[in-house]
Design brief:
- It is a single chain.
- The protein contains ten helices and 19 strands.
- With 395 residues, the chain is α+β, with helices and mostly antiparallel strands.
- The strands form five sheets. It has a six-stranded mixed sheet, with helices on both faces.
- A hairpin with a 2-residue loop joins β7 and β8.
- α2 packs antiparallel against α3, α7 runs parallel beside α8 and α8 packs parallel to α9.
- The relative contact order is 0.16.
């Protein structure tokens, strides 16, 4: 499970949540002095992450000074910087040590160190394995979907929040390295057992495609779990391979965001150029545009829910505002703030809020989310298929 929770003190919970949802990153823009190198055509890599709309009078220099003073006194610069950020009012501002940020970046590349399981709490209150990554440590040890996770390194998980279970599976900063061991206590039917796994570097596949029927005009569901590197191209390739006039159900439910550059690339599959979003950095306005040549005729329905965040909301807002898709589901999470990462003395990295992004029609996503055109709950996919059929997109 690609979770990264390391600390359980108050700010650690927020930071751990951000790292557990590693793909809900930052929308890093044109770098100020000392910021990290980026990769879009402006020399910046654009990412999104949720933050509070209220930010205290803290800046990179203040944090850097606190980190430098702590380092000079033989203390932790990371802890000192984190204390400054915690007082700033920037709820989702964060400070990462070097190893945490390296893992963070690797996750955005589509890889993580772990055992290859996903889990959630069942209706009965158990922590159940919901997915086992093929070829991963858990798969090789015989762990199967539906198994119940009882203990991690001897610690019962029954009453722990799933985020804490993720933290135990991930290990603390001294145990999370590739090749480190973790002991799982599992249950299946009436059988219980323990197995020792060694964490490995695993790759994720954030885009999956399947037909929703048997006929040549059957709709195609494209599920995007996160906008890690390559996800946008994978969406574009998937759209290119959809046969005939078949419609597309673009499932962005529970998509926690990621690289905005990938979301913009994905938008290029459905738009023939034009505006995708605007954003400001310290009051300076910028814009993001789709590439020309996308499929503008095929019927598209986008599925969203409260777990649709940041970069996924940016894509949803663009397709909705541009009249390119009908959105179905429930209101999205509401992540629309811009952050910039900067290196600090000692090698840690701070992320601070510097602005917000808006949809092509000028709507702010931060705090309000996106309201879908057609409301739906658990039956969202069925409702989406009905809407798509009504648009002539097959069934």
């Amino acid at each position: 499970m690609p979770g990264h929770t390391h600390h359980l003190k108050p700010r650690g919970i927020y930071r751990g949540a951000a790292l557990t949802l590693v793909f809900a990153s930052v929308l890093a823009t044109a770098a100020a002095t000392g910021s990290l190198p980026r990769e879009d055509d402006a020399g910046t890599e654009i990412r999104t992450r949720a933050v509070s709309s209220t930010v205290g009078p803290v800046n990179r220099e203040e944090i850097a000074d606190a980190a430098a003073d702590a380092e000079a006194d033989g203390k932790s610069g990371t802890d000192a910087a984190e204390e400054v950020v915690s007082r700033s009012g920037d709820r989702w501002g964060a400070v990462y040590d070097e190893r945490e940020y390296e893992e963070f970046e690797q996750a955005l590349d589509g890889s993580y160190t772990g055992v290859g399981v996903s889990a959630r709490r069942s209706a009965r209150g158990d922590v159940a394995v919901t997915e086992v990554q093929a070829g991963g440590p858990a798969d090789r040890a015989g762990v199967r979907k539906g198994d119940l996770l009882r203990t991690v390194d001897g610690r019962p998980v029954e009453k722990r929040p799933v985020a804490e279970v993720v933290a135990l599976l991930r290990g603390d900063r001294t145990k999370a390295a590739e090749g480190s061991s973790v002991v799982l206590g599992l249950g299946r039917g009436g059988h219980t057992w323990t197995t020792t796994l060694r964490r490995a570097r695993l790759s994720t596949d954030p885009v999956s495609v399947r037909r929703l029927g048997q006929g040549p005009s059957s709709a195609v569901l494209i599920k995007v779990d996160a906008f890690t590197k390559g996800a946008g191209t994978a969406v574009r390739d998937a759209v290119d391979e959809v046969p005939g006039d078949a419609g597309i159900l673009l499932d962005l439910r529970a998509n926690s965001g990621g690289l905005v550059t990938e979301a913009v690339t994905a938008s290029s599959a459905f738009l023939d150029g034009g505006l995708v979003a605007t954003y400001d950095v310290h009051g300076e306005q910028h814009a993001l545009y789709a590439e020309p040549g996308g499929d503008t005729d095929r019927p598209v329905v986008v599925l969203v829910d409260g777990g649709t965040m940041s970069a996924a909301e940016l894509l949803t807002g663009a397709l909705q505002d541009r009249g390119r898709a009908v959105t179905v589901g429930s209101r999205t999470f509401g992540k629309g703030s811009v952050q910039m990462p900067s290196k600090l003395p000692g090698g840690s990295v701070a992320e601070l809020t510097v602005g917000h992004y808006r949809t092509p029609a000028g709507r702010s996503v931060e705090g309000s989310g996106i309201t879908p055109d057609v409301g739906a709950g658990p039956e969202a996919q069925q409702r989406g298929e009905t809407v798509l059929s009504g648009l002539g997109g097959g069934s």
